[in-house]
Write a structure and sequence with these properties.
The structure is a single chain. By secondary structure, the protein is of the alpha/beta class. It has one domain: Metal-dependent hydrolases (TIM Barrel, Alpha-Beta Barrel), CATH 3.20.20.140. The chain has helices at residues 16-24, 44-63, 83-92, 115-131, 145-158, 177-182, 199-209, 229-239, 244-259; strands at 4-6, 27-32, 68-73, 102-109, 134-138, 167-170, 186-190, 214-217. Helix 4 (115-131) links the parallel strand 4 (102-109) and strand 5. Helix 7 (199-209) crosses helix 8 (229-239). The chain is globular, with a radius of gyration of 18 Å. The mean pLDDT is 95. Bound molecules: zinc ion. Residues 8, 10, 33, 35, 107, 138, 219, 221 line the site of zinc ion (ZN). Zinc ion is lined by residues 8, 10, 33, 35, 107, 138, 219, 221.
Length: 278
């Protein structure tokens, strides 16, 4: 199996054995955006502890299987209805932006496309612009996706400070991918066993738009999801007769090209890493 990177996977909701499985399937690095805990966190200190988990313990746990771990920080759109807590979290995030492996602000976005979600989204954008961080975007699901993606793209395009090449818009599907790519953003396809995109639909999208600025990820979150969905995509691409070089570009070279815009992306390719001391 060829080396790949999962650019969006919530390993906090996964057991240590999953890291071992991912490593056996060829995963060499993961990037983990901040997300919802399954319940609304009660205070800014709850977020501070979560960010410590993402930046201190999770890289260690990934390292046990030889996987490099990177992280993104934010308050999730589901919790944005509490605007005052959101503001406290956004003010605290810079404590962590210099930590090793922190790639930027994310996953920020909209969930139910509400006014408060937009307010909190714009304040995250302002932080990212002021600190020159990469941005990872969550677009809403199902019936809210089309409208929510348009709202997000409008807010991004309205802020002249945002460099579109430094933004990854995730969970794109057939009806939203074009608008994202046309505006110069990167796009991520989230592969799920039940909702969102299947590996086969992701291959369809690659056949329609080509491999440029496109990535695939597994999300691996609380709901039914499959942490090895990227290898499933690799298999689906092979079955359709796509070249190994095209597959490698989507699952390995594209994430590296996007992430290497972050000063905290320090990545040692597996082929070049030193054998562990015995
Ligand atoms: Zn996510």
């Amino acid at each position: 199996m060829s080396s790949y990177i999962d650019p969006h996977i919530h390993m906090i909701s996964r057991v240590t054995d999953d890291y071992e499985t991912l490593a056996r399937m060829g995963c060499v690095a993961v990037s983990e955006p901040a997300f919802w805990a399954g319940f609304d966190r009660g205070s800014v200190d709850g977020f501070r502890d979560y960010f410590r988990h993402l930046t201190e313990f999770e890289p260690k746990r990934a390292g046990w299987s030889g996987i490099q771990h990177f992280a993104w920080l934010c308050i999730n759109a589901k919790e944005a209805e509490n605007v005052s807590l959101s503001r406290e979290v956004i003010a605290m995030i810079p404590e962590f932006l210099g930590k090793p492996g922190v790639l930027g602000i994310g996953e920020i976005g909209l969930n139910k496309n509400t006014r408060n979600e937009s307010i909190v989204f714009l304040e995250h954008l302002d932080l990212a612009a002021k600190t020159d961080e990469l941005i990872l975007i969550h677009t809403p699901h199902l019936e809210d996706k089309y409208k929510g993606t348009r709202m997000i793209l409008d807010m991004l395009c309205d802020d002249r400070r945002i460099d579109h090449h430094k933004v990854l818009v995730d969970h794109v599907e057939e009806h939203t991918v074009r608008a994202v790519l046309e505006r110069g953003f990167w796009a991520g396809m989230t592969l799920y066993p039940v909702t969102k995109c299947t590996p086969e639909r992701a291959v369809d999208i690659i056949e329609m738009y080509g491999p440029e600025r496109l990535m695939v990820n597994s999300a691996g979150d609380w709901g039914p999801s499959k942490p090895t969905a990227v290898p499933d995509f690799i298999m689906a691409m092979r079955k359709r007769g796509h070249k190994e070089s095209t597959i490698r570009r989507i699952v390995y070279e594209n994430p590296i090209e996007f992430f290497s815009q972050s000063r905290n992306w320090v990545f040692t390719p597996w082929e070049e890493s030193e054998p562990a001391a015995t």
